[in-house]
């Protein structure tokens, strides 16, 4: 019944998204020519306020400077599902954002849906480490990497200062910070578990932080070569997570990310675990807030890693016409200019993939340092099927309710076995 409902919703979303798009200029892409103006759809998957403001500013500037081209941004709910549905039906946006390190993207490339950008000059503006992450199995580059993401612990810098606290670099220090805040009558941590997807983001962050080989273990489990039940790293991870819950808001499981962010910026919590995608939204809600972020610490600073991958990456449909591709390349080259990438970074707040862009926010320095040092791990979707991951999110959400470590590991094994067999 759930699968049928999901299909109905997906169809509704697809119709909604198509209504928001221009009419198709060809059988395989969405564009429209009115007079001498070629309108091109840019389907982008970032729903947060910060990146949308960044894109809109750049698009408005591009359209003003290029009167023969009109870029129209299209953002819809559940964009990943909608994009997959549109590609399957042959209705591919001329320009779209995607996640080039994920398995699903590699399949799109293999199926011939994404244009190879390897020879484009604008890729020379991308820093080498970010570009290397997006290289596909054939050695080609099929996306313009635009920003890096991360999941970390955002904190109220003023609240830390008032309570004489410094950024913790080990798990023990982190627990001591939570104890100090709790003793002062402050809820140390704001968590939001209403959406399984956001639960999953924290799960991935915790896995990278506390189970160094965890993602690889899940990949082995999908191949029938490993079990999570009894695994010492995963046992450690969920024990730490259970401890973390004792310092969090009591309504965490029922709270949405939006409500949690609002409570956090209004001083109800000292910290909040979320992604770089939320920074712009947080500061937009309270521009005067002194906001910092640090990696979720492991037992030692040296063994601490953060979840980080390519966030915004812009692609071109391989099915677009030559005219559409030429317009798309012009827009991507414009995005890759340092000045424009700086505009996006200023609104989005995440580390940029474009050379010359400077993020002068000292509050994110601990995360940037960790990323620059290579103490990172890409998202699970780079090695594990999205279907397996999505089902694990639901299992972990159950752990938020019962806090049973043995049960969640057993249930994860069962979930992986079922989903992997489908």
TrEMBL record:
InterPro entries: Bact_solute-bd_prot1 (IPR050490), SBP (IPR006059)
Signal peptide interval: 1-19
Protein name in UniProt: Raffinose/stachyose/melibiose transport system substrate-binding protein
Keywords: Cell membrane, Lipoprotein, Membrane, Palmitate, Signal
Lineage, top ranks: Bacteria, Bacillati, Bacillota, Clostridia, Lachnospirales
Domain of life: Bacteria
Organism whose genome encodes this protein: Anaerosporobacter mobilis DSM 15930
């Amino acid at each position: 019944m759930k699968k049928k409902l999901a299909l109905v919703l997906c169809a509704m979303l697809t119709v909604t998204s198509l209504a928001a798009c221009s009419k198709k200029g060809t059988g395989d892409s969405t564009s429209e020519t009115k007079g001498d103006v070629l309108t091109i759809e840019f389907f982008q998957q970032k729903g947060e306020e910060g990146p949308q403001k960044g894109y809109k500013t750049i698009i408005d500037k591009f359209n003003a400077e290029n009167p023969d081209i009109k870029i129209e941004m299209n953002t819809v709910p559940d964009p990943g599902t909608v994009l997959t549905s549109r590609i399957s039906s042959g209705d591919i946006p001329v320009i779209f954002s995607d996640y080039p390190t994920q398995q699903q993207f590699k399949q799109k490339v293999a199926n011939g849906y994404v244009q190879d950008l390897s020879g484009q000059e604008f890729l020379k503006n991308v820093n080498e480490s970010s570009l290397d992450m997006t290289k596909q199995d054939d050695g080609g580059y099929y996306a313009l990497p635009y920003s890096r993401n991360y999941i970390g612990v955002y904190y109220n810098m003023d609240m830390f200062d008032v309570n004489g606290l410094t950024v913790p670099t080990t798990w023990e220090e982190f627990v001591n910070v939570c104890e100090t805040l709790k003793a002062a009558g402050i809820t140390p941590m704001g968590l939001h578990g209403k959406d399984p997807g956001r639960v999953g983001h924290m799960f991935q962050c915790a896995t990278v932080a506390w189970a160094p080989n965890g993602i690889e273990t899940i990949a082995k489990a999908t191949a029938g070569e490993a079990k999570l039940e009894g695994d010492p790293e995963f046992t450690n991870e969920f024990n730490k997570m259970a401890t973390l819950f004792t310092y969090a808001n009591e309504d965490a499981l029922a709270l949405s990310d939006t409500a949690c962010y609002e409570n956090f910026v209004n001083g109800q919590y000292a910290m909040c675990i979320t992604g770089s995608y939320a920074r712009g939204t947080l500061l937009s809600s309270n521009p005067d807030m002194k906001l910092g972020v640090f990696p979720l610490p492991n037992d030692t600073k040296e063994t601490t890693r953060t979840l980080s991958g390519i966030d915004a990456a812009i692609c071109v449909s391989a099915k677009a016409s030559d005219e559409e591709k030429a317009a798309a390349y012009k827009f991507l080259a414009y995005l890759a200019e340092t000045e424009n990438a700086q505009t996006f970074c200023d609104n989005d707040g995440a580390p940029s993939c474009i050379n010359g862009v400077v993020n002068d926010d000292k509050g994110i320095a601990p995360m940037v340092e960790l990323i620059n040092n290579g103490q990172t791990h890409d998202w699970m979707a780079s090695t594990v099927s999205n279907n397996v991951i999505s089902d694990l999110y639901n299992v972990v959400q159950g752990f938020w309710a019962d806090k049973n470590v043995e049960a969640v590991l057993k249930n994860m094994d069962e979930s992986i076995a079922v989903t992997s067999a489908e």
